Every structure is written in C-alpha cells, then in structure tokens.
Amino acid sequence: QVQLVESGGGLVQAGGSLRLSCAASGSIFMINYMGWYRQAPGKQRELVASTTRSGYTNITDSVKGRFTISRDNAKNTVYLQMNSLKPEDTAVYYCRATVKVVLTTPYGDYWGQGTQVTVSS
Predict the structure, then answer these.
(1) β-strands 108-111, 115-120: how paired?
(2) Measuring CA to CA, how many Å separate 66 from each of 20, 22, 60, 69, 94?
(3) Segment 81-119, tens digit of pLDDT
(4) Beta bridge partners of 91
(5) Which of 10, 43, 67, 86 is most exposed, with the fewest beta carbons within 10 Å of its own?
(6) Measuring CA to CA, which residue among 66, 31, 70 is closest to residue 50?
(7) Spatial distance between the Cα atoms of 55 and 48, rounded to a whole number of angstroms
(8) What values do phi and psi take at 40, rounded to 5?
C-alpha cells in the first residue's frame, strides 16, 4: 500500500509564498512521475507542475516564473514552491505519483488527499 500525504497549505495574502510538500510512504520500490494538480471550486482538476525521476519537469504556463517543483528521491518527497501568489491560485492542491512497489510490477497511480491553498486579495 502506498500513501501520499500533502502538507503546507493554508491562507496567504496575494503576493505571498507557500511551500507544499508531498511525502510518499509504504511499499515503495521506485517512484517515477510526481506531480502537483489543483482544483478550484466549479472547475476541473488541472496539472500545475510535474517531474520525473530522470529530471524532466513541466510547469503550466499560468504559474511559470512563480512556482517551482523539486523532489528529493531519497525521501520520496516532492515540493512545490509557490511565490507571488494570486487569488486565482486558490484551490485544493493534490499530489500524484506513479509508484512501483516491486521491480516486476507495473507503475501504479496514486493520489494524495489534497491540501487547501487560499490566497486573499
């Protein structure tokens, strides 16, 4: 069983910063993809940023230059540094990871429970 636990969300004023963390635990052999998604009220869940074990990163255009994704493979943790936050960044932020529990099994897809980020104007 694999669990993803997010932390670091909260209430911040526009222009402020937050750092989200997502730690994976359980039966983990290897993690490839780790990403951050968000879902605002009444909107579809969207990709914010992602990174692969090989170092490829992808940042959605609306947060480029403000958000940075990083990961610590030794800790099975991915981070999202969010700077210059705007009210439109308000959403529940979810962590996603593809995890191999043993060498011979395919990667499974796992999600965290989400953490609320609220940016006040």
Answers:
(1) unpaired
(2) 14, 19, 11, 10, 18
(3) 999 999 999 999 999 999 999 988 899 999 999 999 999
(4) 117
(5) 43
(6) 70
(7) 16
(8) -90, 160
Tokens of 61: 């255009």
Q: Which residues pair with 19 in a beta bridge?
A: 81
Amino acid at the residue 106: P
Residues 6+ apart with CB under 8 A from 6: 20, 21, 22, 93, 94, 95, 112, 113, 114, 115
Q: What phi and psi, each to the nearest 5 degrees, are found at residue 16?
A: -80, -175
Distance separating alpha carbons of residues 79 and 94, to the nearest angstrom: 12
Q: Give the tokens for residue 108.
A: 């499974």
Cα–Cα nearest to 117, from 6, 43, 3, 23: 6
pLDDT of residue 116: 98
Amino acid at 108: G
Half-sphere exposure of 30 (CA within 13 A, CB side): 10
